[in-house]
């Protein structure tokens, strides 16, 4: 396992070019983002956020007005987009000049898109599912793994919540500051600060920014093992007031199993509900070994499969296009990947978040070329990893997002979606719509479980934010079906979707881990990969992970 001297070597090797940092003071326009709610009702207007970004992931002023259109010929859409300089004050770069909103009314049901053209280049919105009446369930979007200056991040959770709500149009957000890891301070100091005042301060900020029906703030924290000592777990509560801090340095909760035992006692006492989510389990400095843990599927029903660290779905040598690059990179140890957890028979679903250490939920910046945050950001936010990582060449990826399937924007509905695994993961900023069902049971329904009686039917559907390169249905760790599309990022909108109906009549065997352990139920999940923009460097196109659905004999 990697030690502190290796950490210093890795950090030193990532030092940036001073000339490049100096050049980063001013950027150039790179792209537009069009962000719409993923669900709309025909005849009712929705607010669409239009953002201009530079190559350093900063909001950027532009000249002229992009033109706007829709795949819905009968939609009411403004012909042009005007950036009037009245954008919000929070955000990297120039949010006042690089952000605006427009109102759009769709008329035709089905999946629709908005398109913008600026300087001869096409930009496409996220897909919007248009309904004829108010739907029973909506796809909500959230970033629920973030850090502020209360631990080792930069900026305040209050500013982060404002950015999530106003700029990114997120529905759900959570700051999960570390229990025992601050910014270059001993773990015991951070533990004391959290118990003395920071935990309660985060409670107050989370409660103050919750707006039922509009914007949901979840409360949680990160249970943090120190470098080379084990993995990290986020703890989420269904409420705020009764939440308690069970830290990783306390004797009773210093192990995964001890934490789960104490959380179960807390839940059984009637204080509320709670769940935990391991993240970046395959990172070499903080590995989470599913094979060596008495894993608790009830209290840990999900794994963060993707974040700015990369994907812990499977190793890079097995085709993972987003192997962990930050820190010490991915571990060679078995038992630390999501496919290992599933092979061991654990019932875990998949979600994504950013793990961004700053006030920009839904839009992490670390994968951009090394650049200098503005003086205003340093003054406002202080020093923390969120800004230092922007300066250093950490080789990260865009953060992740979680899609929640929920009937409303409320803490109860969002927490129920987590508990039932009615969620899936995407890369930022790709609000991809994805569906997977086996014999009519969708992910999150009926405990995501089907009883097989001979042949079963698997259906999938993906609507991307770019041309779909492939959709893979994974069964028991192996590709069961691959639907291929195109690698051409500029392909027409007709290539943005893939769907299919499959049958499987093989006997149910269940997966088997390398030491002979395994599960009795087969599992299926979906991995979608989009085409890659030509100038994206080492970062591949957007992706989504949805599932699993288990099939019992």
Q: Secondary-structure map with pairings?
A:
Elements: H1 4-13, H2 18-23, E1 29-35, E2 39-41, E3 45-54, E4 67-70, E5 99-105, E6 110-112, E7 114-118, E8 121-124, E9 128-131, E10 138-143, H3 157-167, E11 172-173, H4 187-208, E12 216-217, E13 219-224, E14 232-237, H5 256-268, E15 274-279, E16 302-307, E17 310-311, H6 338-343, E18 349-352, H7 375-381, H8 385-391, E19 400-406, H9 411-419, E20 423-427, E21 433-438, E22 441-442, E23 449-451, E24 456-463, E25 468-475, E26 478-484, E27 497-504, E28 522-530, E29 543-552
Parallel strand pairs: 2-9, 10-11, 11-12, 16-18, 23-29
Antiparallel strand pairs: 1-3, 3-5, 4-7, 6-9, 7-8, 10-19, 13-14, 14-15, 16-17, 19-20, 20-29, 21-22, 21-24, 24-27, 25-26, 25-28, 28-29
How many beta-strand runs? 29
Determine the oligomeric state from the structure. single chain
Q: Main sheet, how many strands, which sense, barrel?
A: 10 strands, mixed
Rg from alpha-carbon coordinates:
22 Å
Our count of helices gives: 9
Output the structural class. Answer: alpha+beta
How much of the sequence is in beta strands?
25-35%
Distance between the first and last residues' Cα: 40 Å
Overall 3D form: globular
The low-pLDDT segments are none
Overall pLDDT confidence: 95
Helix content: 10-25%
């Amino acid at each position: 396992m990697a030690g502190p001297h290796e950490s210093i070597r890795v950090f030193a090797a990532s030092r940036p070019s001073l000339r490049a940092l100096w050049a980063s003071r001013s950027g150039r326009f790179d792209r537009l983002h069009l962000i719409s709610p993923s669900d709309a009702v025909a005849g009712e207007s929705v607010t669409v956020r239009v953002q201009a970004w530079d190559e350093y992931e900063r909001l950027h002023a532009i000249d002229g007005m992009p033109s706007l259109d829709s795949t819905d010929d009968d939609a009411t859409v403004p012909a042009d987009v005007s950036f009037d300089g009245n954008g919000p004050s929070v955000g990297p770069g120039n949010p006042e000049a690089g952000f605006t909103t427009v109102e759009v009314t769709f008329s035709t049901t089905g999946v629709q898109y908005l398109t913008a053209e600026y300087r001869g280049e096409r930009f496409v919105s996220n897909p919007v599912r248009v309904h004829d009446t108010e739907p029973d369930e909506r796809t909500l979007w959230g970033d629920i793994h973030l850090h502020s200056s209360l631990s080792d991040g930069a900026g305040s959770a209050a500013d982060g919540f404002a950015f999530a709500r106003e700029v990114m149009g997120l529905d759900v957000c959570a700051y999960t500051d570390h229990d025992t890891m601050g910014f270059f301070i001993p773990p015991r100091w951070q533990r004391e600060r959290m118990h003395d005042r920071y935990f309660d301060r985060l409670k107050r900020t989370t409660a103050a920014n919750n707006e039922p029906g509009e914007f949901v703030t979840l409360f949680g924290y990160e249970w943090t093992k120190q470098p080379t000592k084990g993995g990290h777990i986020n703890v989420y509560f269904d409420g705020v007031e009764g939440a308690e801090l069970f830290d990783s340095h306390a004797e009773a909760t210093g192990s995964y199993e001890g934490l789960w035992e104490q959380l179960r006692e807390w839940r059984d006492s009637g204080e509320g509900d709670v769940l935990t989510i391991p993240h970046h389990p395959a990172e070499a400095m903080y590995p989470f070994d599913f094979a060596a843990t008495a894993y608790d599927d009830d209290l840990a029903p999900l794994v963060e499969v993707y974040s700015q660290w990369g994907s812990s779905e499977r190793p890079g040598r097995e085709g993972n296009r987003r192997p962990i690059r930050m820190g010490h990179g991915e571990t060679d140890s078995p038992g630390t990947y999501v496919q290992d957890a599933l092979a061991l028979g654990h019932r875990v679903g998949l979600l994504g978040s950013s793990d961004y250490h700053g006030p920009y939920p839904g839009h992490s910046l670390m994968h951009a070329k090394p650049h200098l945050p503005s003086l205003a950001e340093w003054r406002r936010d202080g020093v923390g990893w969120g800004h230092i990582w922007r300066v250093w060449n950490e080789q990260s990826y865009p953060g992740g997002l979680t899609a929640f399937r929920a009937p409303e924007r409320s803490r109860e509905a969002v927490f129920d979606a987590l508990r039932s695994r009615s969620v899936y993961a995407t890369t930022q900023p790709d609000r991809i719509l994805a569906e997977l069902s086996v014999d009519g049971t969708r992910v999150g329904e009926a405990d995501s479980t089907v009883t097989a009686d001979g042949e079963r039917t698997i259906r999938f559907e993906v609507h991307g934010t770019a041309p779909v390169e492939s959709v893979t249905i994974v069964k028991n760790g192996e590709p069961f079906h691959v639907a291929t599309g195109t690698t051409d990022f500029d392909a027409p909108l007709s290539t943005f979707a893939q769907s299919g109906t499959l049958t499987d009549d093989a006997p149910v065997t269940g997966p088997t881990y390398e030491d002979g352990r395994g599960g009795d139920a087969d599992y299926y999940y979906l991995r979608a990969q989009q085409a890659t923009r030509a100038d994206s460097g080492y970062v591949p196109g957007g992706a989504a992970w949805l599932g699993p659905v288990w099939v019992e004999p």
